[in-house]
Structures are given as structure tokens and as C-alpha cells.
Amino acid sequence: MIYKLTVPGPIEDVEEVRVLEWHGAAGRRFAPGELIVELETHKAIVEVRAGQPGVLRRILCGPGDWQALGAPLALLSDDAGERLPDTMDELASWPVDFEIV
Amino acid sequence: MLSEAAPPTVKLFFREAITRALREEMRRDARVILLGQDVGSYGGSYKEFVGLYQEFGPTRVRNTPVAEAAMIGLGVGAAAAGMRPLVSITYMDFLMLGLDPLVNYAAKARYKTGGQILAPVVVKTTAGAKGQGVAHSQCIEAWLMGVPGLKVVAPSTPADAYGMLKSALRESGPVVFIDHKRLFPTAGEVPVSEETVSIGKAIIRRRGRHVTIVTHSYMTRVAQEAADLVAAEGIACEIVDLRTLAPLDMATICDSLARTGALVTLEEGQLACGVGAEVAFRARERLGTLRVTRIGPLEAPVSSNPVLERACLPDAERVAHSIRRTLAA
After folding, report:
1. Across-strand partners of A56?
2. ipTM, 2 dp
3. Structural contact between residues B293 and B322, judged by C-beta atoms closer than 8 angstroms
4. Cβ atoms of B150 and B254 closer than 8 Å
């Protein structure tokens, strides 16, 4: 299955965050609890950790990019060979969120 | 005709705009120093000084005790001796403790000595209500507007915070730089290249022909929300963000009022002898008849209870209501 990793929230006072650092490139497999990406708010770093196993497939926001709460950051999948959605339109309504902790 | 491309910008958090301004000015001028509570390795209460202690060291970035009168007194003295200090007073409520050196010494130095002693000190402080109660919420900027020799600025965007803090640090006399607790979570585009924003110039944030809203700091955002609400009813608001409270840019205000003929002032500080009272009176002196409404908080201390805090402060609905009433009059 393909999953969408989104900016977690709500975070008090915060409307959007800035991507600080990805911990791995496309193709890396994450185990539950492993750190995927760090996000910056006006006063804190938000650590986004895997809540399920999965392979990072495509990063949609690079370091320094801004993204709104709830908006997509990356695509993951159970297996490395699964076909990804072709268009961003498809992605916008992608139904399955990647579990995070 | 040559078309000018907009200068490149980078999106920064409000605090980062402040850090950048200070970092650039400290690199540019060795006389610029920073004094305040938790400004050192902690990086400031709003993380607005992060990295400065590491770059400039303990001689130029100095933690102080919780002693506002002494902090501003030190800053004014250092300024008179040739330095360019920025004194950080975490909450504007506690600026009261340092008013004596600021008002009686810094603002007077040039006049008292025939220009032989200047006091180019910047006092940076954070105003506004955000859940911290009666003595950590106040906006007392209007108190400072009647002090000859003192400049007062209150930016509402990261770009203005950046450009105006740089200008403040290059002034020949004292400047109070006021930010707001609710501006710190915001982000905005700031020029990539090093630029300043002039002190003494208001800016029109929104064009409209029916009514002029004159406001500053965080309330500029509330004014925008209110303008969106009444726009649906066909009312076009012009929003003047003062940016500088002393000296007031009456030219920009009156220019707008000459077109709209109606003034709504909006501030978070108390209305009695407030920013709106001064703006409205000066505008009437220049323009004669004018429909005027002032909007401010209730005449009450701001509670730390969020429900009571909200009840006390102007919000978009209340501002929209006042706009409608002003235009119906």
C-alpha cells in the first residue's frame, strides 16, 4: 500500500512549518520508532517518527521548504516496488496516512 | 519602459528576522552590543537571539539580572559613552521600571548637552496579550509617544521587523522597538539582500475607498481579517499600518483619509490618550470634519483566562461591526 506522510497537527499557534532535515533518502526502510524527518516551528523542532514499518519513496518537501499543517511531506509504501501515484492531483486526495508517533 | 523584477525574498519566522537584523548590524558595527535577560546561550525568550552569543561572545552579548531599571540605565550609559546597545526587556509591562533612564536621560541627552552627548540605545520589548495575565499583557506604547527625543516603532511583519531594527540600530538617539507575542509564530518574506526600512514611514497594507483603518503591530492582522469580513458586503477598507508611532506619519494617514473620508483606529492598548486618540485628533486638525471611531480593548486588565482575555481584546467581528456602524452614521 502507498501512504502519505503529512505535517502533524494541530500545534498551538502554528499554521505552517519548515522542513529542517530528512533522515534518509528515497529507498530507505523505516522501522517503527525511527526518526524520518525534523520540522521547525517558531520555537521548537518537531520530530516525526515512523509509527509503522515502511519505505520512504518520494520526498515532496526538501529542507528549507515550508508546508502547512496537514499537507503532504512524502510518500511511503510497504514494499519498495509499488507504483506511486502519477499526479499531484491524485496525491492531494490520497486516502491513507502513514502512521507516525 | 524597463520593468523591475521584485527583489528576491526568503521566508523567515518573525524571530529569525530579528536575529538576522541584529547579526548583520553586530558584524557591521563593533559598537553594537546586546544586553538582556536570557539573551546569552539561551538565545532569548522567543529564541530571537539564537546564535548571537556563539558568534559574538560574552563581551558583546551579556546576560543581565532581572533588574530593568539597571539594564536600561546601563544601556543608556553605554550609549552615551559611544556604544550602540540593544537592551532587551522581555515584557513591555516591565519597561515601566526602566522609564527613568529612558525618558529622563536617553531622550534628553542630546537636548541637555547641546548635541555633545547622544544616546543611541535601542530598547526592544514584547507587548500584547497571550495568556499571561494582568501584568504580562499590556501595550503601553502610547505612553511613550509624548516623549520628545524618543522614537517608537512597532512593526507587524518579519520584513519590517528586520528592516526597522537595522534602522533603529543606526539612529543617533533612543528608539523603542516593540514586537508582539502573537507575531512570533508568524512567518513572512524578507528581502534576501541587506536592506533597511525607514523609521517614520507608515505603509498601506490594503487599498480601499470606503474607510481607512489605522493600526499597528499585531492588530494589523486583525484589521485584515475584519476587512475580509466586510469586503463580502461591498465595503472596501484601506489599512494603514503605522509601523512607527513616534514620529507619526500623518502625511500617509491624511492622504488615505482624503480619499475615504472615514477613520477607524484600532489598537490593543487602552483607548484613553491612546494611539487612536492622537491619530484622530491630528487628522481632524488637518482635514476638518471626519467620521471617526476608535476601537480598543475593554477598560479592564487582561485576564490570563483565555475566555476573558478574548472578551477583553478587539477581534475581527468587533472591528467589522465598528466599520459598518461608522459608515452607516
Report:
1. A76
2. 0.84
3. yes
4. no
pLDDT in tens, B215-251: 999 999 999 999 999 999 999 999 999 999 999 999 9
CA–CA dist B16, B49 (Å, integer): 8
pLDDT at B2: 55
**B177: its cell numbers:** 522597538
Q: Is the CB of A83 inside 8 Å of chain B's CB atoms? A: no
Range from A32-36, B3-7, B142-146 carrying the lowest mean pLDDT: B3-7
Q: Do B11 and A66 touch (CB under 8 A)?
A: yes
Q: Please tell me whether the overall predicted TM-score, pTM, comes out greater than 0.90 for this model.
A: yes
Contact B63, B34 (CB under 8 A): no
The reply to whether B187 and B280 lie within a common domain is no
Q: Is B68 a catalytic residue?
A: yes
A43 interface with B at CB cutoff 8 Å: yes
**Distance in angstroms (rounded) separating the CA atoms of residues A73 and A58:** 9
Fold of A2-82: OB fold (Dihydrolipoamide Acetyltransferase, E2P) (2.40.50)
- Residue B180 is part of which domain span? 9-191
pLDDT tens for A15-29 read: 899 999 999 999 999
Nearest CA in chain B to A44: B47
Residue with cell 524520518: A36
